[in-house]
Amino acid sequence: MLQLVVCSRSRSKDATTTNPLRSSDWPFAGIGCNLNKPTFPGTTLIESRDPNILPKVTLDYLGTAADRASARECVRKGYGLIQSAAMQSVLEAPFGLEDSIIASGDELDKFCRADITSNYHLSSSCRMATRDKGGVVDQSGRVYGTTGLRVCDASIIPTIPPSNNMWTTMMFAERIGRSVRDRQDVGQSSSKL
């Protein structure tokens, strides 16, 4: 799923400004292209039982051909939008991208890799699934291989939802919270709140 996000900001034309995005003398508009359902899950590796040792997280954005193709499609659509006659009537000049980058799949992949970042809807790093399918927690949020430890946040969503994940996370929290309160697994939890 692709999501175009349009924002307006001010930017300084002076290249020596230390933080040009915070200057207000040059208005500009930007288009952010989000891949809401990437196909590469990334990896999280816990290397120590010590809670002070951070896990090794590998995001590998655009790690699959499908993700790269989706990113190219989204950026090309966004670029087409800013190049449209309607936008040309209000834009002075585009910056950051040019026709030659858009025309080349390899150059566009380089552009996307250099400019990619998280859109802060991270999920699925401790996904709920059976152990043999790479799961970290069971349907009641219990962490495999531990006793007395549950996880109940967006990290347990089995696959990244194609939209913002707040409601999905709240649904998991309600079901797992009820199972803890009732001392029953999610599948056996009572219906009373």
Q: Could you say how many structural domains there are in total? A: 2
Mean pLDDT: 81
Secondary-structure content class: alpha+beta
CATH domain topology of the largest domain? Glucose Oxidase, domain 3
Written as H for each helix and E for each strand, in order along the chain, the element string is: EEEEHHHHH
Assign an overall shape: elongated
The largest pleated sheet is described as: 2 strands, antiparallel
Pfam families: GMC_oxred_C
InterPro entries: FAD/NAD-bd_sf, GMC_OxRdtase, GMC_OxRtase_C
GO molecular function: flavin adenine dinucleotide binding; oxidoreductase activity, acting on CH-OH group of donors
Domain Glucose-methanol-choline oxidoreductase C-terminal: 42-173
Structure description:
It is built from five helices and four strands, in the order ββββααααα. It is an alpha+beta fold. It has two domains: 2-115, 2-Layer Sandwich (Glucose Oxidase, domain 3); 131-188, no CATH class. The protein has a two-stranded antiparallel ribbon. A two-stranded antiparallel ribbon has the order 3-4. It starts with a strand and ends in an 11-residue tail after the last helix. 13% of the residues are buried. The model is unreliable at 17-23 (pLDDT under 50). Belongs to the GMC oxidoreductase family. InterPro entries: FAD/NAD-bd_sf, GMC_OxRdtase, GMC_OxRtase_C. This is Glucose-methanol-choline oxidoreductase C-terminal domain-containing protein.
Outline the fold blueprint.
Elements: E1 2-10, E2 27-35, E3 43-45, E4 56-58, H1 65-83, H2 85-88, H3 99-103, H4 105-115, H5 166-182
Antiparallel strand pairs: 1-2, 3-4
InterPro entries: FAD/NAD-bd_sf (IPR036188), GMC_OxRdtase (IPR012132), GMC_OxRtase_C (IPR007867)
Pfam families: GMC_oxred_C
Family: Belongs to the GMC oxidoreductase family.
